[in-house]
Amino acid sequence: MTMLQLNRLHYPVTTLGPGVRAGVWVQGCPIGCRGCMATDTWDADRRHEIDVVEVLSWLATLEPFDGVTISGGEPFEQPVAVGELIDGIRHARPDADILTYSGYPFSVLERRPTARALLDRCDAVITGPYVARLNPGARWRGSSNQRLVVLSERGRKRFAGSEVEQTDAHGPNLQAMFDGMRLRIVGVPRRGELERLEAELTSVGLSMDGVSWRG
Question: Could you tell me how many helices (H) and strands (E) the chain has, helices first?
Fold first, then answer.
């Protein structure tokens, strides 16, 4: 039994990678980028632990999807559990691509043996800290310093020359979905977009408690 600190799962996700995807957000991030839209994923917390098998069981219930996006939080802080998750996805959904986000620069990940082992399992990664003054980046990158690195032949087919290098004006970059009584926003917001959304929702009488991008 391998435990993963998990923040949330979403399906379908259409704003963080090509096609229709499953989204896995891990819990725990020591980087803490200023302006992060998911500060609720920062604190490592064993109360968020779940068996990797349970995540794979959830994925097995979904309709066919093109890929899985793993974000957070910081996936490379849990290389064993995330690696086991990817191995399970490869076995169950061999045609799905794996895109993983990291706040660490790619050069840092390359120097860490555990991170390199996880990179070997991914088809592509988007790396580097979020820098608010460099927003917008591109459709799947929050800021322009972040880097898309393609790591496999499947990744080259799915990501190389894709819309990740287009500006965020090409197609919707945010997705809204309800998780019980919570509104979840998925995607890469333009500068000020979350604040405008919050103001609009408040203006029609919706309570905005525990807003993750305000920390």
Answer: 6, 9
Reduce the DSSP state of residue 205 to 3 states and report it: coil
Q: State which fold the 3-214 domain adopts.
A: TIM Barrel (3.20.20)
Averaged pLDDT for residues 3-23: 95
Contact between 66 and 124 (Cβ < 8 Å): no
In this prediction the pTM is 0.89
Q: Where are the domains of the chain?
A: 3-214
pLDDT value at 167 more than 50: no
**pLDDT at res. 214:** 64
Element (H, E) at 5: strand 3-13
| Residue 26 CB-half CA count within 13 A | 28
Which CB contacts under 8 angstroms, 24+ apart, belong to 54-63? 55/4, 55/6, 55/9, 55/24, 55/85, 56/85, 56/88, 56/89, 56/92, 58/9, 59/22, 59/89, 59/92, 59/93, 60/92, 62/11, 62/22
Cβ burial 26-65 (10 Å sphere, 16+ → b, else e): bbbbeeebebbbbbbbbebeeebeeebeebbeebeeeeeb
Place of tokens 């917008």: 136
168: pLDDT confidence band, cut at 50, 70 and 90? very low
What is the DSSP code string of 38-74? -GGG-S--GGGEEEHHHHHHHHHTSPP-SEEEEESS-
- Bridge-partner residues for 10, per DSSP? 23
Return the SS3 of 185: strand
